[in-house]
Every structure is written in structure tokens, then in C-alpha cells.
Design a protein that fits this description.
308 residues, 11 helices, mainly alpha, 78% helix
Length: 308
């Protein structure tokens, strides 16, 4: 029996989930945006107390160097925290789509074996991608170098052709592997083999789904950028000339936290919901595709009863 999933149904799953569980989506966004808010506070603390001219001077002061080192260390820790939170949020989104009737506390945000599986699969895909990229670059360079003394133009053309062909092959492998992560959550195991088999014959559909997700997210972000630009210039009365003067003279010597914090907290609520919504729109379709394909699997295939 031929199995398939609907691109439209998968793409709409994120919007349906947002309509059904808006508070849960907002909590996912809060968890995702919190590290960014921390990074913003750190940047304001660092750059708000120095002028841009001092940063561009040839000889940096010891205080500036120390602040930059501290910022880099904290930035690295914040990035690690951001990745861990992404794993937790992604697992929560997958569970909500795969098991809609399950009542999870704290919006499904937790640290358990599902999160471990998502992290391991994600890390394996990242390592595999970079390893493949290195191998492709070496092969393309070797082919180009071998033909260089025969014809420089042919060496460049063949090297580029090999790189493009190998890149398309890697892209196909990534599409085949993109259901491993939700399948691992659905089946409660490291579903490298099951997820790979699940996407057999679905590469073109997964490609169409991925491109549709990218198009939807870009459209949402462009629309929001346009709205923000209109608000800033027409409502807030943003003066680009005063901004240029500030960039020329340097940042203010101090940050007025009493004024900034209330505005940051007020913006945090809609921005966190927006981030949760975008996360849901990007990740839920893959879980829905996985759920649909698992439901069409043979009866003797190992799968949770709730999916069948």
C-alpha cells in the first residue's frame, strides 16, 4: 500500500495548534525568547556604558577588553542555553501534535527521554551535515585540481558540477532524515531506522512542505517588519537624523533602566507569543507528516496505539 501525507494538512497543523492551544504556544515562546532577553540586557549593560568611538580606537583599554571577554563568555553560555531550550520546546511541540489528547503540565515543557532523543538526533544530523560538506569540498577540490593542468575552465566547471550534484544529494538525505526526530518522539525510541523508512518515497512531498514552511515564515516576518516600520515612523516619530548623531557621538554613558525595563517587559509578551507561533508553524508540520505516515503504516509495525 502506498502511503503519503497531505502537504496542506501538515502546513495547516501549526495554525490549528495555535488556535487550539494559544496559551501553550505563548509559553513555548516565553521559553524561547528568555535567553534573547538576557542577551539583550547584557549587550545594553556592555555597550550602553561606552562610546562607539572608544570601541573603534586602535588601542582598547583594559576595561573594554575585560568587558568584551566577559560578554563573549556569557554569550557562549546563552547560546548553549538557547539550543537546550530549542530541544525542549521542539519535543513539546511534537508531543502536542502526536498525542493531542495527552494532558501535559507546564505546556509539555520538561526534560526527559524525548528531549534526549531529539537532542541526539539533532546533533547527529548536524555532525553528518558538516562531515558531508567537508567531504564534498575535498572531492570537488580533488577533481578540480586533477583537471587544472588540462584545462582551467574545465577544472572549475567540473568542480562546481560535482559540488552542486553532491549538495543536492546531501539535501535529499536531509529530507529523508527530517522525520527521524518526530518519529523518535512518536515511537519512544531512537528511530533512526524507522524514521528513515518512513520518509521513503516522500522526498518530493517533504521538499514541497519545507519550501512552503519557509515561504509562510518569510511572509509573516516581512509583514511584521512592515508593520513595525510604519509604527516607528508614523506613531513613535522616529528621527533618523538623531540616530545618526548618536552613532557619530557614541552611545549614551548610562542606560535609563527605569524607562527601558517597562518597555522591554511590555514588548516581551507579544514577541514571545510571536516566537512561539513561528516555532509551532515551523516544527508542527513535520510531526503531522510523521503522524499521518505512522497511521498508514502496516498493522504489525511498531507504533503507539494513539497514532493508529
Amino acid at each position: 500500500m502506498t502511503t503519503a501525507f497531505s502537504i496542506g494538512e501538515a502546513l495547516a497543523s501549526g495554525f490549528r495548534l495555535t488556535r487550539r492551544r494559544p496559551l501553550r504556544v505563548w509559553m513555548w515562546g516565553v521559553a524561547s525568547v528568555a535567553p534573547s532577553l538576557l542577551m539583550g540586557a547584557l549587550m545594553l549593560r556592555l555597550f550602553g556604558a561606552m562610546a562607539l568611538t572608544d570601541m573603534g580606537s586602535e588601542e582598547a583599554s583594559a576595561v573594554l577588553v575585560g568587558q568584551m571577554v566577559q560578554f563573549q563568555a556569557l554569550s557562549g553560555l546563552a547560546n548553549i542555553l538557547q539550543m537546550l531550550i530549542w530541544v525542549v520546546v521542539t519535543a513539546a511541540i511534537f508531543r502536542t501534535v502526536l498525542f493531542p489528547e495527552r494532558a501535559d503540565r507546564f505546556a509539555g515543557l520538561k526534560v526527559g527521554m524525548d528531549e534526549v532523543r531529539v537532542a541526539v538526533v539533532g546533533l547527529a544530523m548536524i555532525v553528518g551535515f558538516y562531515a558531508a560538506a567537508i567531504v564534498i569540498a575535498l572531492i570537488a577540490f580533488a577533481v578540480g585540481a586533477g583537471l587544472w593542468f588540462v584545462s582551467e575552465a574545465a577544472a572549475v566547471a567540473v568542480g562546481l558540477l560535482v559540488a552542486v550534484a553532491a549538495g543536492l544529494a546531501v539535501w535529499g538525505v536531509i529530507l529523508r532524515a527530517c522525520l527521524i526526530m518526530p518519529a523518535s518522539v512518536a515511537l519512544g525510541d531512537f528511530a533512526f531506522v524507522q524514521g528513515w523508512r518512513l520518509s521513503r518515497g516522500q522526498v518530493l512531498r517533504l521538499l514541497g512542505l519545507s519550501l512552503a514552511i519557509i515561504a509562510v515564515v518569510l511572509a509573516i516576518e516581512l509583514a511584521l517588519l512592515a508593520i513595525v516600520a510604519v509604527v516607528l515612523f508614523l506613531v513613535a516619530g522616529l528621527n533618523v537624523f538623531s540616530l545618526a548623531a548618536m552613532l557619530e557621538q557614541g552611545a549614551p554613558p548610562t542606560v535609563d533602566w527605569g524607562v527601558l525595563i517597562p518597555w522591554a517587559l511590555a514588548a516581551f509578551v507579544p514577541l514571545s507569543w510571536l516566537q512561539g507561533f513561528l516555532n509551532t508553524v515551523m516544527m508542527a508540520p513535520y510531526a503531522e507528516a510523521c503522524r499521518s505516515l505512522l497511521a498508514q503504516a502496516p498493522q504489525d509495525a511498531a507504533r503507539p496505539v494513539a497514532l493508529g
